[in-house]
Design brief:
Helices cover 38% and strands 16% of the residues. It has 384 residues and is of the alpha+beta class. It has two domains: 130 residues, Alpha-Beta Complex (Aspartate Aminotransferase, domain 1), CATH 3.90.1150; 245 residues, Type I PLP-dependent aspartate aminotransferase-like (Major domain) (Aspartate Aminotransferase, domain 2). Strands 1, 2, 3, 4, 5, 6, 7, 10 and 11 form a nine-stranded mixed β-sheet that branches. The radius of gyration is 21 Å and the shape is globular. The protein binds pyridoxal-5'-phosphate (PLP). Pyridoxal-5'-phosphate (PLP) binds next to α4 and α5. Pfam families: DegT_DnrJ_EryC1. InterPro entries: DegT/StrS_aminotransferase, LegC-like, PyrdxlP-dep_Trfase, PyrdxlP-dep_Trfase_major, PyrdxlP-dep_Trfase_small. This is DegT/DnrJ/EryC1/StrS aminotransferase.
Length: 384
């Protein structure tokens, strides 16, 4: 069974023998020319025309009014949470099934993550689990929402669009409104994913993208905060640029800020990548549909985009019947040079985040033990 899968992947990528990676960036002449132009301009660091252009491109693509570029997605999350008003001692609701950046950003603010289970079909934060937990454990007061047992403020909610598949963000938005929680979307994996006609990351007060080397497009390293709120955008830019007050020559900083601005070199790379994005998304969709067909024909479970949503199919995934089958599949494919990976170890299983508050997480546990990511790069014909 694994052999047939391996043959299929090798045929898909027209690669009879060399190792097939999980996800590779697509880059070439446009990126080289853009980076060269940044060098020629002498603006290679955190000021430059490409940073502004890249922000404009991402804002326009996502339909957000404002975009603020940062050195990576983790920094974007950190700034977004600070701007959302997250303070030391706060609780921030999120999913345990995520890359560690989500929890780390919460921790950098001095707050603690509070884990709610994910939904079996979207792989993202479950609205019904969220509502049920809030009804059982939280109370709304004049000043905000508090956890009853500890009296701690629950400030924000950070759902994540897992593997690029949009979570049920409309239902989560409604719940966050009802409970006065600031919604910040971790859309790091979901550039090019939509719910209805709206881009992921534009439902919350802020959304965050990543341009790390393994994401749909890359800037080498980079991130972006998007928002429709001008004040939040201004504050995010201020905090991410060392909180320097605008002035023709003086260095005055009005609070402790961060040196998180995306360098112009990386932004130049990003501008070139943005013009490839539609082609990459089309190619990744083609890959996903070929996998879906193969899985259907062979009785495997392929993870498809949720109903009513359009996924960027960043990382494709298959679901195995149990952990043993999954481990055998991981061993066989990796030994054959076809790179596959399990999902992240859930955050509540890591000693650093194990002691926090959480609801039971049966779906998180089940998915973490059975999902496998399979090679998902754009096809060669989508790379010119
Ligand atoms: C990639 C990613 C981030 C941000 O990662 P950086 O490497 O800092 O850009 C944040 N959250 C999730 C879920 C991610 O996958």
């Amino acid at each position: 069974m694994c052999d047939e899968f391996i043959q299929f992947v090798r045929a898909l990528y027209e690669e009879p023998s060399a190792p097939i990676p999980l996800h590779v960036p697509v880059m070439g002449t446009p990126e080289k020319e853009a980076v060269a132009a940044a060098i020629d301009s002498t603006f290679v660091s955190s000021v430059g025309a490409f940073v502004t252009e890249f922000e404009r491109d991402v804002a326009e693509f996502s339909g957000a009014k404002y975009a603020v570029a940062t050195v990576n997605g983790t920094a974007a999350l950190h700034i977004a949470l600070l701007v959302a008003g997250v303070q030391p001692g706060d609780l921030v609701i999120t999913q345990s099934l995520s890359f560690i950046a989500t929890c780390n950003a919460i921790h950098y603010c001095g707050a603690d993550p509070l884990f709610i289970d994910v939904d079996e079909h979207t792989l993202g934060l479950s609205p019904s689990a969220l509502r049920s937990w809030l009804e059982r454990h939280a109370e709304c007061r004049m000043e905000g929402t508090f956890e009853r047992a500890t009296g701690r403020r629950i400030r924000a909610c950070v759902p994540m669009h897992t593997l690029g598949h949009p979570t049920d963000i409309k239902a989560i938005t409604t719940i966050c409104d009802e409970w006065s929680l600031t919604l910040v979307e971790d859309a790091a994996e979901s550039l090019g994913s939509y719910v209805g006609n709206a881009h992921t990351g534009t439902f919350g007060r802020m959304g965050v993208f990543s341009f790390n080397g393994n994401k749909v497009i890359t800037t080498g390293g980079g991130g972006m905060i998007v928002t429709d709120d001008e004040q939040l955008a201004v504050r995010a830019k201020h905090l991410s640029t060392t909180a320097k007050k605008p002035h023709p020559w003086a260095f005055e900083h009005d609070e402790v800020g961060y040196n998180y601005r995306l360098p112009n070199l990386n932004a130049a790379f990003g501008v070139a990548q943005m013009s490839r994005l539609p082609g990459l998304l089309a190619s990744k969709r083609e890959v996903a549909s070929r996998y879906a067909q193969w899985c259907e024909a062979n009785g495997w479970t392929f993870v498809s985009e949720p109903q009513g949503a359009r996924s960027n199919y960043w990382l494709n995934a298959v679901r195995m019947s149990d952990r043993e089958t999954r481990d055998a599949f991981l061993a066989a494919t990796n030994a054959a040079g076809v790179m596959t990976r399990p999902l992240w170890t859930p955050m509540h299983r890591l000693p650093i985040y194990a002691s926090g508050l959480r609801d039971p997480l049966p779906v998180t546990e089940a998915l973490a033990g059975t999902l496998v990511n399979i090679p998902s790069s754009a096809l060669a014909n989508g790379r010119s």
